[in-house]
Amino acid sequence: MRINAFSDVCLRVMMILAPAAGLKTSRVIADEIGIPYNHVSKAVIRLRDLGLVEVVRGRSGGLRISEEGRRASVGSLLRALDTREDLADCRTPAGDCPLIHGCGLRMALRRAREAFYSELDDVVIAGLPDSRGKGAVPVSLGMITSQEDCHVHMPPTSNR
């Protein structure tokens, strides 16, 4: 599975805010994660609407992770951000796929997506930041699928 660029930015914003003691501005966060300010601003608005971050306005304002945000799981956040009804493009402006009525692929993909999110329900966003990595992280605005795709050190993971 692959998450979209917007979800990727939202997760990175949450990971930057999780260990932060005070307020951070959207511009500071954008610089820290190496993502354009306008993308971070849109992510902050959505995260605020979901109740995961608190925004303080004014000259000394900024944002911080909310208590709800500290308890949020990666799976629940990705579900909230996923606006696609189907993973496959069965309906297009040119018309529906001719196989749409007898196709089992759509349901199989929905079950696979839910299994992906369910696996991430045990991962709390506030527990993700690692103090070893500081500074801007080179990103391609996509989910890293293997250690070879990663530009930062990732310890090997064990299979369950």
Secondary structure layout:
Layout: H1 5-17, H2 26-33, H3 37-49, E1 53-56, E2 62-65, H4 67-71, H5 74-81, E3 91-92, E4 95-96, H6 105-120
Helix pairs in contact: 1-2, 1-3, 2-3, 5-6
What can you see in these coordinates?
InterPro entries: Tscrpt_reg_Rrf2, WH-like_DNA-bd_sf, WH_DNA-bd_sf. Keywords: DNA-binding. Pfam families: Rrf2. This is RrF2 family transcriptional regulator. Its cofactor is [2Fe-2S] cluster. The chain has 160 residues and is mainly alpha-helical. It has one domain: Orthogonal Bundle (Arc Repressor Mutant, subunit A), CATH 1.10.10.10. A hairpin with a 5-residue loop joins strand 1 (53-56) and strand 2. It starts with a helix and ends in a 40-residue tail after the last helix. The protein has helices spanning 5-17, 26-33, 37-49, 67-71, 74-81, 105-120; strands at residues 53-56, 62-65, 91-92, 95-96. It has a two-stranded antiparallel sheet with strand order 1-2. The model is unreliable at 136-160 (pLDDT under 50). The protein has 6 helices and 4 strands, in the order H-H-H-E-E-H-H-E-E-H. Helix 5 crosses helix 6 (105-120).
